[in-house]
Structures are given as structure tokens and as C-alpha cells.
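Collaborator request, handled under Task 6.
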Amino acid sequence: MKPSSRFALIRGRRDANDAALSCIPPKLGVYVADTSGAGNGIPDKLLLTLIGVRDVACWCEIKDGSKPVSAQRLTDKEYEFFVRWFDRMRCAVVGNATQTADMCLDLKSGMEVREFNLKWLAPALRDYRDAAKRRAERAERKAMAR
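C-alpha cells returned to the collaborator:
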């Protein structure tokens, strides 16, 4: 039986710095669940830590910070995923070791979901929207030129 396309998984690619950045959270007391193989916009990692008596989780997308900004941009599916989760769960996009360590420390500090996401996710969402707007403007100019 063929799986429904709605639930079919598309294998995700790993960023070049995935292994290097994945070893940082455990050193800071944060458990890392690798979800990079899931694809379909699901972030690369699910980070879990304990604050007092409650578990705290964070979806984390790893981008290769050595690439140009345009190559670090969220995909359409990643954008949709993060927009859906913005007010529900901590989410982050990181590109280097310093960002990863700082994000883990913010996670462990118990920073509120909205504050955390405004710091660690909002810049990536804003960049995606700006790029989409520029693409639409270029397409409109091209259509008008015809």
C-alpha cells in the first residue's frame, strides 16, 4: 500500500557543521534527539533539558554559518513548521558554535517561549519573508516587462 503523500517523509540533508554543533548541548546538560532525517520541514534537532521539576524542549534548526546568508535561509516547509509552533514551543535557528551554546544557556535559564522565539527564531522568519517579498516583486516586474 502506497503511503499518503500528506504523511510521506522526505529525507533531509545534514548541514556540514551538524556534527560539530550537535556535541555542544550535551556538554551544557541538554539532551539532543536527532530528527534531521525526517525532512518535510521538521527541524534538525529536538533539544530537551530539565529545569527544576519540569521538562523544557526546543526545536532547533541547524544552518551552515560558513555559507552565504541566502544559502542559510529557511525552506518553505521549515518556515511553515516554525510559524505553526511559534507561540507553542521554543524554537531556534543556529549557525555556529557560539550561537548554539548561547541558545542552550537561554533554554536552561527557563526563558519564556515568546521571548526565546523572538530572540532565536524571529530573525530567520523575517529573513524568509523579506526574501519571499523580493522574489514576488521580481516576478511581478518580469511579468510587466512582457
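The cover message to the collaborator said: "Confidence is low (pLDDT under 50) at residues 1-10. The domain at 18-145 is CATH 3.40.1350.10 (Trna Endonuclease; Chain: A, domain 1). Please let us know whether this matches your experimental observations."
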